[in-house]
Amino acid sequence: MIRVLIADDEPMIRAGVRAVLTTAPDIEVVAEAADGHDAVELARRHRPAVAVLDIRMPGLGGIEAAAEIRSAVPATGVVMLTTFGEDDYILRALGGGASGFLIKSGEPEELIAGVRAVAEGAAYLSPKVAARVVAHLAATGAGALAGRRSTARAQVDALTAREREVLTFLGSGLSNGQIARRLHVVEGTVKAHVSSILAGLGVDNRAAAAVVAHEAGIVPPPP
User: Fold this and answer.
1) Any transmembrane segments, and where (predicted)?
2) Model-level pTM greater than 0.90?
């Protein structure tokens, strides 16, 4: 059973997230919080597999709460909930330890898929979030975007063919186990590839690697 903590300052959003997650037979909501401080305390107390946090909350925000939760309870993965127009927050959260990013207005199936992926140690970047990140980078100017894409492609080209293949699956939100089944290898081999990919790309986590994969254009665009 995947134990989940929900934190959002809007009661209706919390109720909606809880309603979606409880439709999954393998997910249990064990605690709810209305702000970041309570989320950190409840994470320490309940030690959930996944914390689903609003990216902006009064007091201690979601990004700061994510960093504290990852420090206090390293086994807890973090999924950030965001809305359109919060692209700066998404980019900041990439370095804060979050492993999943979802749009609040997205499909319910994405929320369940994201929680399951993060519980398995994967990164989950909603296709809409990935599109928003790329669009936000484009807004910084064509030259800056071209530079980021060129850098990302150079980083990816420096990987081995197998590492690029693994990165494509990682960028699509697959867990190590799912990638292993796709490639017909053991999960330990995939873990070794992922570690090598993170080092080769110079990033700290799978979500950041997923962004590089999208920037490099090796992940199919969202529908």
Assistant:
1) none
2) no
For the beta sheet containing 27-33, the strands, ordered from the edge strand earlier in sequence to the opposite edge, are: 27-33, 2-7, 50-54, 77-82, 100-103, 124-125
The topology under which CATH files domain 133-216 is Arc Repressor Mutant, subunit A (1.10.10)
Smallest CA-to-CA distance from 63 within 92, 32, 105 is with 92
Of the options 2.60.40.1180, 3.30.70.1560, 3.40.50.300, 3.40.50.2300, the CATH number for the domain spanning 2-119: 3.40.50.2300
> For the chain, which residues make up each domain, given as ranges?
2-119, 133-216
